[in-house]
Amino acid sequence: MKAIEISAYGAPEVLRLTERADPVAGAGEALIRVAASGVNRPDVLQRTGHYPVPPGASDLPGLEVAGEIVAGDAQALAQAGLRIGQRVCALVAGGGYAQLCVAPVAQCLPVPDGLDDVEAACLPETFFTVWSNVFERGRLQAGETLLVQGGTSGIGVTAIQLAKALGARVIATAGSDEKCSACVQLGADHAVNYRTQDFVAEVKAHTAGRGADVILDMVAGDYVAREIDCLADDGRLVIIAVQGGVKSDFNAGQVLRRRLTITGSTLRPRPVAFKGAIAQALREKVWPLLASGRVRPVIHSRFEAAQAAQAHRLMESNQHVGKIVLTW
Ligand SMILES: NC(=O)c1ccc[n+]([C@@H]2O[C@H](COP(=O)([O-])OP(=O)(O)OC[C@H]3O[C@@H](n4cnc5c(N)ncnc54)[C@H](OP(=O)(O)O)[C@@H]3O)[C@@H](O)[C@H]2O)c1
After folding, report:
1. Ligand 1 atom closest to Cα of 268?
2. Which of 129, 180, 291, 305 could tie 326 with a disulfide, CB 3.0–4.6 Å?
3. 274 Cα: distance to centroid of ligand 1 (angstroms)
4. pLDDT band (50, 70, 90) for residue 187
5. Which of 131, 134, 126 lies closest to 152, judged by CA?
6. How confident is the model at residue 69 (pLDDT cuts 50, 70, 90)?
7. What would the mean pLDDT of 21-46 be, rounded to a whole number?
8. Quick one: which of 63, 231, 93 has its CA closest to 154?
9. To the nearest whole number, what is the mean pLDDT of the chain?
10. What confidence tens digit (pLDDT) does each residue in 169-178 have?
11. Which H or E element spans position 168?
12. How do residues 82-104 score in pLDDT, each as one tens digit?
């Protein structure tokens, strides 16, 4: 098969089109002929040597694919209500930038009605991450307020839409006025340009001084103290990335006085059973929203897989709103 490999850690040019042996599906796994592979920021971190591959995972980058099941564990497929020939999208721990990809059956989901393979390839990484962090760890409820940092990221566009569809109020931050407009078009009740406005003051102003019930944070660093300042009593701060640094200096007194929760997670190293449980929740609660068009994939650009370096360059330029996809 053809695949895109990381030939050495470094700039986008280290992504090379190569030939690899076809992978083989083992027990509990499906082999997918990949039509499209989603690009995510963690792929960029892996390429630059800042995101080690979990034990047992492919060294090829790529955390999500869509395509057709061409082989696999017949019993596991039947139990999951899937079959050979079916179009699916899948969350994988690596190996997504390839014409063939093995995925645990538990992490495969049927392509939602009405979506094509490119749209479906955009779903797994951000929907699994947002579901697990915003709705499970963060326990966001209808009627509560969510602050999404990085509202136009792949993660952000999913978080805004899902939270709105499930009845929450959403405030999002972004780095330009154009991106703020995109957040509002996606359903955010209010967007904050974090380069020109203070998100703490904005959140307080738009919640009558109460603060946000849940914050989805991909910055950390000096954001943590400010986020604590604009969390409501009993609020939950969920950290999924540390783009602003790993060290934070904050007032721990507020955490106890106002019963705040600071949590976080990384999806990739979690076991198949954990990811399978998220897949089931998504299939039940979120796939109908995608099929009805209430929630939609937001695609900024698609590239032929051989142009993977260009796709990474675009991601690093931070010009995109939503997802970048590779096609085979
Ligand atoms: N923990 C997990 O399981 C998990 C899973 C997937 C992804 N992630 C992480 O989640 C983040 C988003 O991933 P992605 O693939 O969606 O990446 P992406 O589309 O490249 O998004 C990166 C985002 O970070 C925003 N950002 C950077 N500095 C910011 C700041 N100071 N304030 C507010 N926003 C800021 C950017 O906003 P502007 O462009 O507007 O500046 C951009 O929207 C990445 O950091 C990724 O590593 C974590």
Report:
1. 3
2. 305
3. 23
4. very high
5. 126
6. very high
7. 98
8. 63
9. 98
10. 999 999 999 9
11. none
12. 999 999 999 999 999 999 999 99
Cβ of 187 closer than 6 Å to ligand 1, yes or no, is: no
Residue 194: CB within 6 Å of ligand 1? yes
**d(C-alpha 188, C-alpha 166), whole Å:** 13
- Rounded Cα distance between 93 and 328, Å, is 19
For ligand 1, pick from 92, 218, 242 the residue to mutate: most ligand atoms within 8 Å of CB.
218
**Given CA atoms 6, 7, 10, 11 in this order, what sign does their dihedral have?**
negative
pLDDT tens for each residue of 189-222: 999 999 999 999 999 999 999 999 999 999 999 9
Is the distance from CB of 42 to CB of 52 less than 8 angstroms? no
Asked whether the beta carbons of 60 and 3 are under 8 A apart, the reply is yes
d(CA 239, CA 27): 34
Pairing of strands 100-104, 323-327: unpaired
Hey, what are 281's tokens?
């929740």
The CA angle 274-126-306, to the nearest 5 degrees, is 115
Instruction: Please state, in angstroms and rounded to a whole number, the distance separating the CA atoms of residues 6 and 98.
Output: 12
Strand pairing partners for 68?
33, 87
3-state secondary structure of 41: helix
DSSP code string of 93-147:
SS--SBSEEEEEGGGEEEPPTT--HHHHHTSHHHHHHHIIIIIIIS---TT-EEE
Cα–Cα–Cα angle for 159, 161, 163, nearest 5°? 65
The residue whose CA is least distant from atom 25 of ligand 1 is: 150
